[in-house]
Specification:
Blueprint (H helix, E strand, L loop, with lengths): L6 H10 L8 E2 L1 H15 L3 E14 L2 E14 L3 E7 L5 E6 L3 E7 L6 E6 L4 H6 L1 H4 L6 H9 L12 E12 L2 E15 L2 E12 L6 E6 L10 E13 L17 E3 L2 H5 L18 E3 L5 E3 H4 L4 E7 L4 H16 L5 E8 L3 H8 L8 E4 L3 H5 L7 E5 L5 E6 L5 H14 L3
Parallel strand pairs: 1-8, 7-13, 16-17, 17-18
Antiparallel strand pairs: 2-3, 2-12, 3-4, 4-5, 5-6, 6-7, 8-9, 9-10, 10-11, 11-12, 14-15, 16-19, 19-20
Length: 418
């Protein structure tokens, strides 16, 4: 699971909406600047530019650095050529000629394969396309630009900006740039709101293009971890004619066509997110101590609490003691709690648990398949399942009211059985 996955929509929210709709404390200069940026991008018929996305993750377990070089060319309303290249991650290209959209990933295990689908009718449709959701983390800088080029779905961002402060002009790569600092609130799923301080720089003058974005994700990291994330943009061109073959895709002779990215990868198609009242997917998973837990065997006998987590996830670690405390208080009332670890090995989990003042029943979702069945995106992701096998509650993230919320939910689930 990509640890930067939750920041893309947060940042896109800041630049995608007209400032006339913004809430929160936004100074006059920031309001004028952001409004001019949104109006400028949405008015363009063609756009081309580059970005370098840099991710530097440091933790006691080691360091992880990644760079992704992206190039975007678009023609309204839905033609695009987006490429993303990296030395440490698979590179890919997405092309839409307005009628069809193609996706090709440069990775040894899937060479000679590509995806062809009907082209979405707008850039927002490209952003929302199910295959694009699996690629956003690598090229999120350019998905932010795509979101600027249309105004669909803008209402959902009305409350996202808590504050915006204009910090003046600065030199960026030899050009004068406006610098603003935003505090962005963005839902990361039911029950979770992320507040992300984000610095943005925009070129001064008649073409107020984005030049740099730096989000601060430190609040959502495990103690001892740091994350330096930045997007640097360059080579912008607006309203210029693009070559005729810009939006043309020609597969190599013998290449195999697939209808979706999951089909190409040999994975199940993504399922719609679960909601309260849905039947919980049944599964069997190996526990950390070597046993096996079957959800079907518990149906009708126990109220089940699942918490999807990982040792690198700061909010997960914050929430686990509370989950243990509350569920232990209901143990004699037929409640069981399982912490479902995502795609880590036994040694890493055991090392994490060593010395903790609480004990966990840990299930090992080594391939992430159970998480996929439950529609898990961000973590921690907790699920309460009633005796009838239906979802009684979903909660994503750590919040200060987690204890009272879970207590109330379990009381209601138990009362529903009588």
């Amino acid at each position: 699971m990509n640890r930067s996955m939750m920041c893309t929509s947060v940042l896109a929210a800041a630049v995608a909406m007209p400032v006339s709709l913004f809430g929160g404390e936004i100074d006059t200069k920031s309001r004028e600047l952001l409004e001019s940026v949104a109006e400028f991008y949405s008015a363009q018929t063609t756009i081309s530019g580059r970005s370098m996305n840099t991710f530097a993750i440091s933790s006691p377990a080691g360091n992880q650095d990644m760079e992704m070089a992206c190039e975007l060319k678009t023609a309204s309303p839905n033609k695009l050529h987006l490429s993303a290249k990296s030395r440490s991650q698979p590179s890919f290209v997405v092309i839409s000629d307005g009628a069809n959209m193609w996706l090709n990933i440069d990775a040894p295990q899937i060479s000679g394969k590509y995806v062809e689908t009907e082209a979405p009718s707008s850039f927002q449709g490209v952003i929302d396309h199910k295959d694009m959701r699996m690629l956003k983390e690598g090229a999120d800088s350019m998905f932010m630009v795509l979101s600027l080029m249309n105004s669909e779905g803008i209402d959902q961002y009305l409350e996202d900006i808590d504050s915006a402060e204009y910090l003046g002009t600065e030199d960026v790569n030899g050009e004068s740039n406006h610098h603003i600092k935003l505090m962005i609130s963005k839902s990361a799923g039911p029950g979770m709101t992320m507040e992300v301080p984000t610095d943005m720089w925009f070129r001064a003058g008649d073409e107020p293009s984005i030049t740099k974005v730096v989000p601060d994700m430190s609040e959502y990291l495990q103690p001892g971890m740091t994350a330096d994330i930045s997007y640097a943009y360059s080579d912008w061109s607006f309203g210029e004619d693009l070559a005729e073959d810009t939006f043309k895709f020609t597969p190599a002779e013998g290449d195999e066509k697939f209808a979706s990215l999951p089909a190409l990868l040999g994975q199940p198609e993504p399922v719609d997110p679960l909601v309260e009242g849905d039947e919980a997917p049944m599964f069997e998973l190996e526990s950390l101590d070597g046993g096996t837990v079957s959800l079907a065997a518990l149906k009708g006998k126990k109220v089940i609490v699942l918490d999807f987590w990982a040792t690198w996830c700061g909010p997960c670690i914050q929430g686990l003691p509370t989950m243990v405390e509350v569920t232990n208080a209901f143990k004699d009332k037929g409640v069981v709690f399982y912490a479902v670890n995502l795609q880590e090995d036994n040694d890493k989990v055991n090392k994490f648990l060593d010395g903790k003042d609480y004990t966990l029943n840990v299930l090992m979702d080594r391939e992430g398949k159970v998480a996929q069945e439950f529609g898990v995106g961000g973590i921690p992701h907790s699920v309460v399942i009633g005796l009838d096998g239906k979802i009684a509650d979903l909660h994503i993230g750590f919040s200060e009211n987690m204890k009272s919320h879970l207590t109330e939910t379990l009381n209601e689930a138990i009362e529903a059985t009588h």
